[in-house]
Q: What sequence folds into this?
């Protein structure tokens, strides 16, 4: 998982279902450090647990991004069942309980998450001269060839091809 740059163009296989989970927080009141810092510091322990138990938990990979007020973590999971099971696990439940006790209904900090269940063949990716990143860390990386040169060719699902041949309404 280093920072080796893979020269050339690569994509990922899209032959497995995947769950994309976005989770983050927004600092609404910067001076209320006592309210938002506990939310921020709860994540490292959970991330460590995910990486240490990837196969058992169904966690594949993640990326984190930090803005002035908002953070977002993009996680890739093997299935929605795995993600939901983790949500019921001890570390997450403890963090959620602590959040509710310390933050409660205050408007000093906000949290959010979004979950997307993506069936095989319904996603595609392209990486040019990049280290492993995003879906490229979660799914098998393969070189771009004539067979997968375009996004259309990489989206090989039955739904995509059916949508392309469906008659258009006037």
A:
């Amino acid at each position: 998982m280093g920072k080796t740059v893979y020269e050339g163009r690569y994509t990922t296989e899209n032959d497995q279902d995947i769950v994309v989970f976005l989770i983050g927080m927004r600092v609404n009141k910067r001076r209320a450090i006592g309210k938002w810092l506990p939310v921020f510091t709860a994540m490292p322990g959970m991330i460590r647990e995910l990486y240490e138990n990837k196969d058992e938990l169904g966690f594949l990979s993640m990326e984190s991004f930090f803005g002035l007020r908002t953070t977002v973590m993009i996680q890739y999971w093997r299935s929605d069942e795995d993600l939901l099971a983790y949500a019921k696990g001890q570390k997450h439940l403890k963090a959620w309980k602590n959040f509710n006790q310390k933050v409660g209904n205050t408007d000093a900090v906000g949290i959010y998450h979004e979950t997307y269940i993506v069936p095989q063949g319904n996603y595609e990716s392209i990486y040019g001269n990049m280290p492993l990143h995003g879906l490229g860390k979660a799914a098998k990386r393969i070189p771009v060839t004539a067979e997968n040169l375009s996004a259309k060719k990489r989206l090989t699902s039955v739904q995509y091809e059916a949508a392309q041949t469906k008659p258009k309404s006037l």
